[in-house]
Design a protein that fits this description.
The structure is a homodimer. By secondary structure, chain A is mainly α. Chain A has one domain. Chain A is 54% helix and 7% strand. A two-stranded antiparallel sheet of chain A has the order 1-2. A two-stranded antiparallel sheet of chain A has the order 3-4. At the A-B interface, β2, α1, α2, α5 and α6 of A face β1, α1, α4, α7 and α8 of B. Chain B binds a DNA duplex through α5.
Chain lengths: 229, 229
DNA sequence: TGTTTATGAATGAACG
DNA sequence: CGTTCATTCATAAACA
């Protein structure tokens, strides 16, 4: 059995038909299940890591600091013998992106010089970053947001009028965050990883097989997304 | 479990969908990304554990063992041959490509927005396409054309003693390198995780997760899990 | 069917 | 600020 992609029975406007996928409740449940599996595994792994590093800290002590980046002993040992490569361009971590998006969504889209400084300082606690990075990010974010808006200008038949927030924006935000975490996750340290876990782990899924007893709290959580479908 | 597929009308709210839910491509993508986030986090945590247990092999203790127990991959538990048949990215048809190439050959390297619109409209008669597709195509076409030219030019050789540097890296200005080095500093991370098709395999989980664990999955294939629903 | 290649897409940075 | 370039990722297509 295959998922069926239905083209909208809509006047074939230039913008192309709106494609949707059709899922049954059972299929949806499978998705929730799978995601909850990963959430559960992440949870357990983090706990295990805490347990092990806790006993290890007694012997090893604090981690090393290299520049701005915190590298715990584990990271160092993993990196030894492998290529140490400087990145060619800054990439926001999941946490940084979250913060940036939040600030951006506050509408005060004018990051003054002073604001940039503050933001940079705050984000600096979650990874390398410079004021230029922040500045560029806002520039790009604004420009691309605008372009997307224009692009979706001609009479979009978006399927959700019940939301005050633009679903496109919302999805984009989530997508960006997820994508970043996926693409660049291997470069974040454990401290950030743990935070990421908290961040994403906040979106647990209630499945029959996983009685995690956690519902979606974040408006950006996936459960909210699923429920809104 | 047998999937129930229902025909959809245009609006998910108007279809009286008591049995089905409708997802847009975008929402689907969010799900995929979300799962990949968990997969990546799991991957990193497993790597950390490997490192820790490797450097103190005595640490593996009660109930926290990563390694020997077998669990059916999600593929098995969920994979009944169900497929998500959505196209994930646009692919130009032969006709479209021909037109695009012809326009590109005309040398006017920068098709302005208005041009893009026109081109999109024209190509739209030969298949589903958006302005973004056209825009991206020209971006990529130009960039890759340029790269090819540079690569075929054995001129720039200022060989620093680097053993095997690709042409694209040569094109990087020293200035950029210096700035980036300053911006990011020494970056010790799991570089190998980002680039290789590493195996998550060999790490399975005991306990409640036993019947729904994951194994042998790279992030890519984990995303592919969704395709197997 | 698994691996490699070609290329659509995303995005940080730079330019005018 | 809008536009363009450069780099990278992920995947469709091609290949073995």
């Amino acid at each position: 059995m295959e998922w069926q992609i239905e083209e909208q029975e809509q006047s074939p406007n230039a913008n192309g038909g709106l494609y949707v996928k059709v899922m049954t409740d059972e299929q949806m449940e499978v998705l929730r299940q799978q995601i909850s599996v990963y959430a559960t595994i992440c949870e357990q792994l983090v706990e295990m890591h805490k347990a092990i590093t806790a006993q290890q800290d007694l012997a090893v002590g604090v981690g090393l600091r290299l520049g701005n980046s915190y590298c715990d002993p584990l990271m160092v040992s993993c990196g030894s013998g492998h290529k140490i490569t400087a990145r060619q361009r800054w990439t926001p971590t999941a946490v940084q992106l979250e913060i940036l998006e939040r600030i951006f969504e506050q509408g005060n889209g004018t990051p003054s010089k002073q604001k940039i400084k503050e933001i940079t300082t705050e984000l600096g606690q979650h990874g390398h970053i410079s004021e230029t990075n922040v500045y560029n990010w806002f520039q790009n974010r604004r420009a691309r947001s605008k372009r997307k808006q224009i692009a979706s200008e001609p009479n979009i038949i978006v399927e959700s009028e019940q939301e005050s927030e633009s679903p496109k924006e919302k999805s984009l935000s989530l997508e960006k965050r997820a994508r970043d975490a996926y693409l660049h996750g291997p470069d974040i340290g454990f401290e950030q990883l743990a935070t990421s876990k908290m961040e994403f782990g906040g979106c647990y899924f209630q499945g029959e097989l996983q009685d995690m007893g956690l519902g979606g709290q974040s408006p950006n959580s996936l459960i909210a997304l699923l429920d809104s479908i």
